[in-house]
Batch of 2 targets.
Target 1
Amino acid sequence: MTQELIVTTEGPIGRIRLNRPKAIHALTTAMCDGVLDALERWRTDDGVRVIAIDHAEGRGFCAGGDIRMLADSGAKDGVEARRFFHTEYRMNHRLFTYAKDIVAFMDGITMGGGVGISQPCRYRVATENTRLAMPETGIGLFPDVGGGWYLSRLPGRIGQYLALTGARIDGAECFALGLATHYLPASALEEAKARLAEHGVLDELAVEPPAAAILDRRGDIDRLFASDRLEDVFAALADDDTDFARDTLATLRTKSPQTMKVSLKLLKDGAGMASFADEMKQEYAVGARVVQRHDFLEGVRAVIVDKDNAPKWDPATPEGVSDHVIDQIFAPLPEAEAWTPHD
């Protein structure tokens, strides 16, 4: 069986390499456990000064989490799905609070769980191949793994736009928005990884990125996504006679109204969270419920299993999703079931 996570130490560099190329390195519970174990080992190892997270062969850094497992579990008792979220979020939090420098190489597809494993790192390297997105509303999920924290802190309403539409942004856009700390040509990555222990090597190898196209849309995005009410966003897009508004509204009509509302509340709450641990605790409560709801099971069926890309959302419209349902999804779990950080 192929090793899904390759953990090595090369002098002062601890290396974590995601290795599920056929799944674009989508994360499993065992992989998240492996990252936690490595970080714990290196925490007290004075010989390891910097940690690198990248991927083995293939066209992406990390496409997300093990969605099929989550759906299979959600259709039953949800226990395995909750175990995955609990472990993954502990990994996210440990990366966020880790004392040593961690560098994530976001070369290629970086989506969902890939955003979750890269964004907490102190240094985040984008390239011309980077395609970052949080596309969860298309399968009846929401931008978790800290999405409520990171997206709510982007300029203006760009975070809300990315959360609802699942739009992909490139490496230059990641850098302009602060989702990447460095922009390197992909051809320079091997040198960067080899010399990672050298102070300032990322700055030395970085190049000027192309213009960030999303910033040209900033005014439209801020205006059209100004409200935290999904119905208002739909109305603003419908009233705007531009190709961008029409295309964006058409995109939103393919997404789960329920989890778009979840996403807007997640970002609104996330902007005021006192700590990343508080964010993960809320996201765990929300995720534990959403994986057992109709829209997630239907979204996975339509997009991943049957691939007909015709999910039947229930409710089918923003107006059909009551505030009461959203409040139920966001209700705190009993303390005995709640998420807690790694000791």
Target 2
Amino acid sequence: MIEFKSVSFRYGAGGEDGRTRNEASLTDVSLTVRDGEFVLLTGPSGCGKTTVLRLINGLIPQFYPGEVTGEVLIDGESNAGRELYDLAPKVGTVFQNPRTQFYNVDTTGELAFGCENRGMPEEEICSRIDETVSRFRIEGLMDRSIFRLSDGEKQKIACASADVSGPGIILLDEPSANLDYGATLALREMILRWRSEGKTIVAAEHRIAYLWDLTDRAVLMKDGRILRELTGAEKDGISEEELTSLGLRSRTTEDPAAIPLPAFSEGDEPILLRDFRFAYPGTKKAVVDLPEMKLAAGEITAVVGCNGAGKTSLLNCLCGLEGRCSGTLEYRGKRYGRRERRRLCFMVMQDTGNQLFTESALDEVLISLPKDEPEPEKRAGELLALLDLEDFAGRHPQSLSGGQKQRLAIACALASGREILLLDEPTSGLDHRHMKETAALFERLRAMGTTLLVVTHDSELIRACCTRRIGIG
């Protein structure tokens, strides 16, 4: 179904990730994916997984220009010169950031969009939507505004949209990055359904646990090359230690809500939240409704719960971003209203592109430093090095990969010197190494007396560093 014949690719100047023609994104990749096969692409961030998917669906070179050598074939036909509308009926893609693939403002319209573009009859479109909604169990997300969905809910809609169109090839780019445990299991069920229907599936993933046993092959990539392929008994028999040595995440699934951590322990210094309530304009139901909650100061608290439960909204309220939110925070004998909390808290958003504003990574950290910092450029350089970003100091923040943006936002949080750090899915785009480094960094911050509140679905991160856990919803 899919064949790569000695394919190499270099992004053009000003292309994806700001790369120049001197940086090879793929080098001499040969890969065959048989009809109905499920292949997992995994490896460190920046290893070329997403580039492989873009070559399959035609976004390279139609949307991301660059120099391609070798040949990519779909069902025996070369992709060279083919238009995107020729490939769209055959190849469906779920992107890492679902917002980049939406064309409608409502969920039902989004599910219908691909079928409408292909000129299907209205009756067939409605039938396809009903079937997909039932299989995904997303009845509660229909006829909703895209803008009112959580990131995890958006990911569900993106997966459902790919299913409704009925392509023979499904490409998944970090599809579980924003999904809660239950939604990830639902995605697993959908993949099983796709497999039973004979779909050809290629998934690029860091979080491999939920699909490891479903795959026919695992293709390990590094620096734009295929490092190793694991098939059959070799894949099934690999140990957790070997996975770690290869830089991969665990293949063991675990519900974050089941990890045994206390919300608050005797002897903890309290941070009290009182009367926090927030509802979106035009709605009666409160997204955040906390008469009282006690957090542990100086600890790393994991905030867990289903997609749409209000975890991100809680962080927005805590750091003073939601002007309509009532409530106060009491900490060390002081009471903080919304404006005061802005100087107490720093938030790292899930979509970090929304909080990066300058022309370079270095400038981004510089504007976050206190005005009385004696050696700002030296300190900013140290923070970039700490987050493995020193080589990207001169790069435009919006040209960085998702994982690199995440680390840059964390560097800005550290630069701010705030007492309470709020982090929304800080490992959603991170590979095993950077997840462990982020966990180690959080532990260092905790040792310095910083309080961290981490919204996460990542059980590996919770196991690695979190000391407290609270559930929302």
